[in-house]
Design a protein that fits this description.
The complex is a heterodimer of chains A (114) and B (110). Chain A is 0% helix and 50% strand. Chain A has 114 residues and is mostly beta strands. In chain A, the strands form 2 sheets. In chain A, strands 2, 4, 5, 6, 9, 10 and 11 form a 7-stranded mixed sheet that branches. A 4-stranded antiparallel sheet of chain A has the order 1-3-8-7, with no helix packed on it. Chain B is mainly β and 110 residues long. A 5-stranded mixed sheet of chain B has the order 1-9-8-3-4, with no helix packed on it. A 4-stranded antiparallel sheet of chain B has the order 2-7-6-5, with no helix packed on it. Classes of the chains: A mainly beta (114), B mainly beta (110). At the A-B interface, strand 4, strand 5, strand 9 and strand 10 of A face strand 4 and strand 8 of B.
């Protein structure tokens, strides 16, 4: 158990709708990253938050946005959902002062867009 | 960022030692090599990280030759519960994203 929680576990949305996913990193971790994992593929980096600001961003459109709260928890928002947004969404926590390659992942939120 | 190449799948039997090799010809001087394990419907889990020679922990060993253009993850005496996808990642240890490839799907049979 990596100590990272994500909610909800599963979600079904309709094309064009908006969705918010939530993540609480392990205690002591102040950096949160979000990844999208399509079936049969490796996770793809969406963005990373530190000190409530987006620090890095992957190759994802502006429909994907996020937020980090003072308690280090984070949200991922996706607007105008497309069928291709169906995937497992993972968040990962890390310590800014630690090795960033040692990240702790949550179980993910399975999003299905119909 | 260095690109990695690893076998798409491997089969093994319980009790055997499994070696998964990853090729990373363009590794940079300050890059580390990290391996993650992922079970179905779970997030990836950090296994081991190294820079050169050999690193061992309670789960696995990581062998890195002198030229660092490849690395081998060694899992001793695998069990059915080691069936998972294993990812090799290469990059620096200062802030930022993890770059995952397709990984190696390891199937352990009884």
């Amino acid at each position: 158990d990596a100590g990272v929680t994500q909610s909800p576990t599963h979600l079904i949305k309709t094309r064009g709708q908006q969705v918010t996913l939530r993540c609480s990193p392990k205690s002591g971790h102040d950096t949160v990253s979000w990844y999208q994992q399509a079936l049969g593929q490796g996770p793809q980096f969406i963005f990373q938050y530190y000190e409530e600001e987006e620090r890095q961003r992957g190759n994802f459109p502006d429909r994907f946005s996020g937020h980090q709260f003072p308690n280090y928890s984070s949200e991922l928002n996706v607007n105008a959902l497309l069928l291709g947004d169906s995937a497992l969404y993972l968040c990962a926590g890390a310590s800014a002062g630690g090795r960033h390659y040692e990240q702790y992942f949550g179980p993910g939120t399975r999003l299905t867009v119909t | 960022l260095a690109k990695t190449t690893q076998p798409i799948s491997m089969d093994s039997y319980e009790g055997q030692e499994v070696n998964i090799t990853c090729s990373h010809n363009n590794i940079a001087t300050n890059d580390y090599i990290t391996w993650y394990q992922q079970f179905p419907s779970q997030g990836p889990r950090f296994i081991i990280q190294g820079y050169k020679t050999k690193v061992t922990n309670e789960v696995a060993s990581l062998f890195i030759p002198a030229d660092r253009k490849s690395s081998t993850l060694s899992l001793p005496r695998v069990s059915l519960s080691d069936t998972a996808v294993y990812y090799c990642l290469v990059g620096g240890n200062q802030g930022g994203k993890l770059i995952f490839g397709q990984g190696t799907e390891l199937s352990v049979k009884p």
